[in-house]
Every structure is written in structure tokens, then in C-alpha cells.
Fold this sequence. Notes:
The complex is a heterodimer of chains A (459) and B (422).
Chain A: H1 4-14, E1 19-20, H2 23-28, E2 43-45, H3 50-63, E3 67-70, E4 87-90, E5 97-101, E6 106-109, H4 115-123, E7 127-128, H5 141-147, H6 154-157, E8 164-170, E9 176-180, H7 193-196, E10 205-212, E11 214-215, E12 219-227, H8 230-242, E13 249-254, H9 255-264, E14 275-283, H10 285-301, E15 306-309, H11 313-332, E16 336-339, H12 349-363, E17 366-372, E18 377-384, H13 389-408, H14 427-430, H15 433-446
Helix pairs in contact in A: 1-3, 8-12, 9-11, 12-13
Chain B: H1 5-14, H2 23-26, H3 28-33, H4 40-51, H5 59-66, H6 73-77, H7 84-99, H8 103-113, H9 116-128, H10 143-149, H11 164-167, E1 171-172, E2 182-186, H12 190-194, H13 197-209, E3 212-215, H14 225-229, H15 233-246, E4 252-255, H16 258-265, H17 267-270, H18 275-287, E5 288-290, H19 291-298, E6 316-319, H20 323-326, H21 333-341, E7 346-347, H22 363-366, H23 368-385, E8 389-392, H24 395-407, E9 413-416
Parallel strand pairs in B: 2-3, 2-4, 4-5, 6-7, 6-8, 8-9
Antiparallel strand pairs in B: 1-3
Helix pairs in contact in B: 1-4, 1-7, 4-7, 23-24
Amino acid sequence: MLKESIVAELQKIVGKENALTSPEALKAYSYDGTTSWVHEPDIVVFPTSTQQVSDIMKLANAEKIPVTPRGGGTNVSGGSIPIMGGIVLCTTKMNKILKVDKENLTATVEPGVVLQDLTIRLMKDGLFFPPDPQSFLGATLGGIIAENAGGPACVKYGVTKQYILGVEVVLPNGEVVHLGGRTLKNVVGYDLLHIFISSEGTLGVVTKAELKLNPIPPAKKTIMVVYADVAVAGESVFRVLENGVIPDKIELLDNWVINRIEEMMPMGLPKDADAVLLFEVDGIPEGVEKETEKIVEIVKKYGAVDARVAKDQAEADKYWMGRKAGFAAVFGKAKTVFAEDVTVPRGQIPALINKCKELAKKYNVEIVVLGHAGDGNLHPAILTDINNKDHYDRSVKAMDEIIEGAVELGGVLSGEHGIGLEKQKFLKRQLEPAVIEMMKKVKALFDPNNIMNPGKIWE
Amino acid sequence: MKDLKELKKIEQYADQCMKCGFCSFFCPVYQEERTETSVARGKNYLVKEILKGNQEFTKEMGDIIGLCLLCKRCVAMCPAKTQIDRVVVGARAQMVNEKGLGAIKNFAFRKVMSDRKAFGNYVKLAKAFQWLLPKTEGNIRHLPDFLKALGQGRNIPALADKFLREIVKPVYKPQNGEKPKMKVGYFMGCATDFMYPELGLKFIDFLTKRGIEVVVPESQSCCGAAMYFSGDFETGRLQAEKNIAAFKDVDYIVTACGTCSSTLKDYQKYLPDTEDQKKRFEEFEKKVKDSMEFIIDIMKVKPEELTLKKEFEGKAATWHDPCHLVRYQNIKDQPRAILKGLKGLKYVEMPNADLCCGMGGSFSVYHYDITKKIAGKKMDGIKSTGADIVVTACPGCMVNLTDNVLQNKMPQKVYHLLELVE
């Protein structure tokens, strides 16, 4: 519980209507997109300016109150859960797109802008912001930067950190600083901007960001490729790339997911296929044609059963809709789902998939695989039920081994979701003790009182 | 342990939510409020907390489940197919069971609206004193709401001098004098009855011109939307039984009000208390048709064979999808087919045609400020089309669209689609 005087101070800063303390409101800010973490804050505040954020931080720092920044609350690693209570600093009312600069291909945004709102605005100018986390309907730019989010398009376009030129940040002591700038090249001193990106809200609050944009490619095409063996599908991914074609997306659906999609929205996916890969290529029309032909040729050469080129955008949209529904299908079929986010070097995808199959057998649990095969970022999901202790325990063991397996294959335990609360216990398996120590020192430098999203990343 | 009967019924729907938060993008209320309690995910989470015994039906909880238009936009887009509309309505019903209806709604639903004649008299009374009030008003379908909303600066259509039920005949034979092709019961709905009686006569004329016999049972009541969407299932059930009894021996029950048609169809979804009731409500549902689907799908009218009224010659029209048509009944192609087929009329699609107008029944009375903001977005869409007229097929939407067109000083007039054709 916060002292009444502090609540009054916060109300003074953001206005009464922007400071929520009712039990109902606190409950509604106790969760994010994860299934297993819940903790209520003591107050939720909605600042509407950098000055207000700064005033909130000054107060919190002086009183040593935890502050958890939050945008759309679509996080899937528990990063936006106020695990130590205190203040939830919600940026959803700082949602202005301040500027779209066509000449320099940049945009200036506030942290609460929802990615899809930005996308719609940029379309007017024929531009787009390439990072495409699949939570784009709810995710805000502040959260996307804090988590260094990625998505399917990262095969060709990379992740968030490649598209942030600069940020305005309020530090835990309330000071406002500017990291990076507005230029594509910038080597002035240490690259603190990139320490900030992917800091999961533990170093400060983004209050403004300068984004790098691309022009929307004039053409794109989708190819649906069918496999009798999911490991062969994994091989196709690097075969296509090594033969000189870089699709903007390569997504994988396994047999289980294919069948759930066909149940929900029949679209003619082959139900007996072990796996399907969805490729998308984009660029100038002539290039897209050539690349499409090349993909069909290569996948067939390396063991695909069938390769269908979507005849029009409507057919392509259908496949991508299916891919999106696949994610929902997984969550809809089990009480509890461990949605993993492991990423391996692309050449190891078949090995990781085989590992998952092996573990499913060993522990007698259902492990389904879908994900961004193009960049080695798979989402093996284990379907379980937290109320069924025996099954749950076996699932936990299987998950542990998937993560161990990914690290052994030269991969990482999280490709795009972040560590947050969900993956803390695995951190030591990936990072050397000295590295974790350095991270803690960086944290202490920015946030000596440990008030900024405390309890995250390391145990 | 408390009896959570109504909540238990919707537990399975509440469990569907996986908390992805995508609903926020589609929720017209969240888009204005930007708080978690205004969006489906937050409401669903709190309802689950009640089920777990961690939350009570406090006043604030009531406000939270009240703050929903039931527009179903999030339901249509939910990746997990969570039927949040059923969760919200179920929670309202549970709250009514525990806390009662509250004085205003109790009076409105149980004493006034459930008795059609009394309702008419009260509305008349209100009308008699209309001149006392600033030229404004409220949601006439819900009388006390109507009184409460007075003075909020709204413009609504004046009440008709004669209500439809006072001028309508019980039976209309086909105009060609031949044996009827089929016999339909016409369900008028409150808004048509009190504010748009000419629309009711128009629809009857349209049907009887085309060889259909129309009966208008005097014992028909309010559809029950205002009651059961507010959680008053008891009164809702009474309305359902009255209406089912009123419409015996007809091939179809038709109405020109999108909200009424969806409400009549959904009796089976929300209200049955017994297996027998469920069966009868399901049988009833099969016979209910909205005017738009009835004209195209049952009568098989060819839009290009319809005649546009002279006054609309050369005009550009845009279509507003009522929530109760587009999402509750998947009726969206039929009205567009008519508008596109009508010779002499130019059809322009507005951006976000399926966006709720912001009315949401009594929502607009309690949250008129939010209603206005949501309607503002609708108005932006209408303006961008350059259309001369806005066409829809729900008197509820017509009231709100008319109000906002006037408030925004826009030149467009609002019509029910039936008003356009001969």
C-alpha cells in the first residue's frame, strides 16, 4: 500500500482521472499476455507528457517505490507485470504520432502508439516500419523498443534495434536524456541507445522515439510448401537462403497446427502433411516473379511434396490468416501452454525440431511447433494443464530440455519475447556469471535504487 | 458459497480468452478510454475473478461491465473466439440477481416497457412536456433514460403524433387481391412504433405489393433488448413469451429494426430457463428475419428491379452497418446489393462502415460523452465519402446518426433503406 500523501502527489502530477487505485483497476493491471504471472500494483498512472513521466520518476526514486512501465500489456514474458507492486506507469495515453518525415524516411512517435495505428498512418505515405511482432494490434512502440521485438519479417528486415535511430528517455531519477539521434550512422561515444533497446523497462522510460522507415515494396507473393517430414521443411529454409533468395517471411506450421487451422477455417491445407512452410517474397514485381520461381525450384529439389504459389492476394491472405490463427489454436486447446521462444542458427532447425519430437515421446506430452523458421526462431509449445500435477511436471521437464537443447545447438533461450519473469531461471544456462555481473552493474548505474521494473531478467 | 448461476453459464466463454489483448484495437470504447477496464480482456479477467471468489459485484464492477456497447467488434476479431458479449451480458444478469436492477431500470423495464400500452402512454406523457425542454433529448426507447438524457444537447426525431400501433390494421392482404404467397407477422419495435411509424407502413406496403399477407398482432411487445442486454433476464423472458405467443401461425416474423431482429433471434442464446423453453425459442428463431435478409434471401427480390424514389435520383448513398446486422446476424451483403442495384443511385462505401455508431442502447444515455466521440469517427468516415445520404436499417442507429450529423453541421440526411424504394 502506498501512503496517502504519495497517492495525492501522483494524482497532482497526472490528474485524478489518470491515477487509478480501485481494487478493480489494480486487478486489471496485474497481468499481461502470459498465463502464469499475476501481481497487483498499488496504483496505475497514465502520464500524458515527458514532464509528467519525469515528475513521477523523481517521486518514486525519492520514495523508493517500484515503477513498472507498461504499454498495451501484450508482453509474453511477464515483463510488464508489477511483480513488486508499486506504480504501473501506463503509456497508453501518450499515443501521438508526432511526425512522419518522408524525406528522411523517419517517424517520431510517443511510446504509447500502437504498432498497427502507426502502420495505417504510414501506409498513406507508402512507408512502413519493418519490425512486425505478431502482437501488432495491441503492442505499443515503447514496449516494442523495450523488448527489442521481432517478427516474421525479420528474415529479411531484421529486428527492432535496426530501426531505432534515437530515443528520449526518462531515467529512474527523473532526468531526461537523449540517446542516439536522427541519422543512420552515429558513432559518437558508447552506443548507449542499444543498451536501452531490449532493457525490458529496467533502465528507464522511453518517452519519444525516432524510427527508421522503409518504402512499402510494390509487389509480394506467397508460396505454400508442403512437406512429409518437418525436418525436411527445416532444411528447406537454409537451402532457399543459401541459393540466393531472401524471402521477407518463412513461417512454419506443423501437422498438429495445420489440422487445428483446418478445423477452425478450412482453407485446403493438406491435413496429412507433416509440415507446411509459408514463404513470402517482396520487392519489385520482376524480382518477385523470379524469386518465386526460384523458391519453387529449390524446395522441390530438396524434398518438398508440393509447392503452391498463391494466385492472388486473397489466397495469400487466407494462408497468413491461417498462420495467425495457428497461434490462437494452440492456446485454445489447453488450459496451460508453455510457448517457447528458443532460437537457433538456421542450419540447426531440423535438429531442434527432431529434439522436440524426441522429448514429446520421452515425456509423453504434446509438443507442437510453429514459428519464424526463417530466422531460426521457433515457438515449440507444450500443451498442458497446471491443475494436472503429473502432466504439468512432465511438461516442465520437457520445456527445460528444449531450452537446454537449443543452447547446446548454439542458440539462445529467447529470440524475441525477452526474459522478464518467464525465463529467469534459465538465464544462467546461457550467460557466463561475469556477464550477468556486468549487466547488474549497468542496471545499478542507471538505477541505483533499483526501482525501475525490479525483479525482472535475473533471479 | 454464493449461487453464481448466470456466471456459471458463461464460464466456458470466459475461459477462452488467452489475454493477447488484440481486442483493444477493435474496441470503440477502448480507443477513447485507453484503460484496461474498458476493454474485453479486462472485463473478462474481472468476471473470472468473480467466478474464483476474488471479486464482488461492487458499484465499480457494475460500471465496468456497463461500459460495453456490445458491438461485438472484438468478438469478430478475437483469435481465441472469446464471446465476450455473452460474458458481459451474463455478468450483468448475475449482478441483477444479486443486487437488483436499480431503481431507474426497475421502473423502466418491469413497469413501463414490458406493458406496451403503458409504455405508449408514458411516452405520450413525455411528449406532452417536450415543449418544456430544450430542443433535445435521449433514448426514447427507454423512457426513464429518455427523461434522464434530456438536456444533454442531443437532437432526436420528434415523437410521432400518432404511434404506429394506433394507425396500423391487424391484417393486410396482398394488394393484387390474389391468394397470398406467404403470410408474415410484422414486428414493429419501439422506435418504429413511436418515432418512425411511416417506416412501418412503408414496409407493410412493400410486402403486400409483392403478394405477401402481413399480420400485425396487437399483443406484440418490446423485443426485450434493453432488458436482457442489461441483465434483466426475467423481464426478457416475459417479453420472449409474449412475442412468441403473439406470432403464431405465420410463415415468418419480419421486422425493419436490426436490433429487434437480432434480439428476437437471440432469445434462445440468452434466456431459456428450461429445456422446453430452449426448444421453443430455437423454433421461434428460425422464423425471424430482418427486412434486409427477408427481401433478398427469402423474397428473392432482384435489386435492379426495384424503383428508386424520385427524390433520391442522382444522389450518392453510403451504408452504415448496424452492429446488430453485420455482426449479430452477418447481414452485410444484402443491403449493399440493394443499394448498388438501385438504378439512379450512386453507392459509395465508407471507411469502417462496420464501426459502431456509439449508440449501444442505454450506453449512450449513461456515457453520452463517449458516444459522441465514437460517433465522431463515424462522421469522419461519412464525410470522406462525399455521400448525400446515409443509409442504414436500424432505427436505433438512425437516432444516433441523425443526432451526430446535426451536431457536426453536416449536410447528409439519414434514412432507413426501405425509405428509398417505391
